[in-house]
Design a protein that fits this description.
The chain has 374 residues and is mostly beta strands. It has five helices and 27 strands.
Length: 374
C-alpha cells in the first residue's frame, strides 16, 4: 500500500484528489483543521519559549562624507511611530505589529537629559522614550489647560520643564517634566506666529522668535518680558521672517533669518556680532533655512527645506559638510524643518513631509573616545 504524505501547505484541490484515490485517508482529512490549529499553538508556544522578541530593525550603513574621505556623520535610525520605541509582545510578534500612533506633520524637535525625544505634531507633542520603551503625548488633554493646536518650536530646561510654541494659539505653553500643564506665556501686544524657542539657563533667559512680527523676544524663565530684539528689515540686527533660534555654549544667540537667507549672531547681551549666508544654489548658500542646532564642538547645523538637507558650519561660518538630498530613502528628506542635537552628539532632524524624524551620529572626538571605552 502506498503511504499518504500530507503537509500543511497542501491545497484543497489536492486533498480532494487524494481522497478519491485513497479513501482510507478521509478520517485523516477530517482531522486536518485540528492539525493546522495544533501547528498554530505550537508556533505560539515557541514564541513564548524564546521570549517573543521583536525582530531587530536593521538600517543601512550610510556615512557623510562618503569614502574615501573620513566619515564625520553616520545614519542611525528612524523615529516615526510607537513601533520605533515600544517592545513587541508575543501576541503582536505572532499576529503582526500594531501601529497605534504615527507622526502626521511634524515640525519641531528637542531632546531632554534622559534622551527622550519630543516632536511637535498636529495638536500634540510626541514623546519618544526609548529608555523606557514607550510613546506618550503632551498637549492632548483639555482639563486644566495646556491643549495644543499647532505646536512648532520646543525647548527643554535642565530640570525638565518643557516650553512649546503654538503658532495657532499665539502663545508659549509650559509643562513640567511629566507633561502636566503649568502656565502660558503671552506677549502684551500679542504674538503673531511664535515659532523658534531657545533657552539660556545660565543667564535665566528664554528667547522666542516671532516669524510674522519679525523680531525676537527675550523673556525671563518665569515668563516676564525683558526686551525685544530687531524689527523688519535687511540691515544688521533686522529680520525678515525669523523662524528658528539657538544658543551656543558661550551664550551667543543665533537667529535663522529665513526671509533674508542668512544667520545672524548676537552676544549674550543681545548685541549684534556678525552674520553669514546668502541666497544661492551652491553649498554654503541658503534658500529656505529652518532649524538650527550645535554639537559638542559648537559646530553649527542648519536645515534647509529647499535644499532638502542640513549643512554643517564651523564657528566662523565656514561650510564643513552637508547631509541629504530630496527623496524618501534613508538620509533623504522632503521639506525638513526642526533639528536638535543631544549631549552625545546624536542629531535629530524632522523630515516633515516624510512624516518622520531621522537620527544621525556626529562622529566627534568625544564620541570616538566612548567607542574606545566600550
Amino acid at each position: 500500500m502506498k503511504l499518504l504524505k500530507l503537509n500543511y501547505n497542501t491545497k484543497v484541490a489536492e486533498v480532494e484528489t487524494i481522497e478519491t484515490f485513497y479513501p482510507f485517508s478521509t478520517a485523516y482529512m477530517k482531522l486536518f483543521p485540528l492539525l493546522k490549529l495544533f501547528k498554530l499553538f505550537s508556533l505560539f508556544a515557541l514564541f513564548v519559549l524564546i521570549g517573543c522578541a521583536a525582530p531587530e530593525r536593521k538600517f543601512p550603513d550610510i556615512v557623510w562624507p562618503p569614502p574615501p574621505d573620513e566619515p564625520k556623520i553616520k545614519f542611525v535610525e528612524i523615529l516615526q511611530s510607537n513601533l520605533d520605541v515600544e517592545e513587541t509582545g508575543f501576541i503582536t510578534a505572532f499576529l503582526g505589529e500594531e501601529v497605534r500612533a504615527v507622526l502626521g506633520k511634524p515640525y519641531g524637535v528637542a531632546v531632554d537629559s534622559e534622551a527622550r525625544v519630543y516632536v511637535s505634531d498636529l495638536g500634540r507633542v510626541f514623546v519618544f522614550d526609548r529608555k523606557n520603551k514607550k510613546l506618550s503625548f503632551i498637549g492632548e488633554e483639555t482639563l486644566g489647560g495646556g491643549k495644543l493646536r499647532l505646536p512648532s518650536g520646543i525647548a527643554i530646561s535642565r530640570d525638565g520643564k518643557i516650553y512649546v510654541a503654538d503658532t495657532s494659539l499665539n502663545k508659549v505653553v509650559v509643562y513640567d517634566k511629566n507633561g502636566d500643564y503649568l502656565y502660558d506665556i503671552s506677549h502684551a501686544s500679542g504674538f503673531d506666529a511664535p515659532s523658534g524657542l531657545a533657552l539660556d539657563e545660565k543667564r535665566q533667559k528664554l528667547y522666542i522668535a516671532d516669524a510674522k512680527r519679525h523680531y525676537v523676544l527675550v523673556y525671563s524663565l518665569d515668563g516676564k518680558h525683558l526686551r525685544t530684539i530687531g524689527k523688519r528689515g535687511r540691515d544688521a540686527g533686522e529680520f525678515n521672517f525669523p523662524t528658528s533660534i539657538a544658543v551656543d555654549s558661550s551664550g551667543n544667540l543665533y537667529v535663522v533669518d529665513t526671509g533674508n537667507f542668512r544667520i545672524q549672531v548676537f552676544d549674550p547681551a543681545e548685541k549684534h556680532i556678525k552674520m553669514f549666508g546668502e541666497l544661492g544654489d551652491r553649498p554654503g548658500n541658503f534658500v529656505r533655512p529652518k532649524g538650527i542646532a550645535f554639537d559638542s564642538e559648537d559646530n553649527i547645523y542648519i536645515v534647509d527645506a529647499a535644499f532638502q538637507n542640513f549643512q554643517v558650519f564651523n564657528k566662523e561660518g565656514r561650510l564643513l559638510t552637508f547631509v541629504g538630498n530630496a527623496g524618501e530613502g534613508f538620509g533623504q528628506f522632503s521639506v525638513p524643518a526642526g533639528i536638535a542635537i543631544d549631549g552625545n552628539d546624536m542629531i535629530y532632524v524632522v523630515d516633515q513631509l516624510n512624516r518622520r524624524v531621522q537620527v544621525f551620529q556626529y562622529m566627534s572626538e568625544k564620541w570616538k573616545k566612548r567607542q574606545t571605552v566600550k
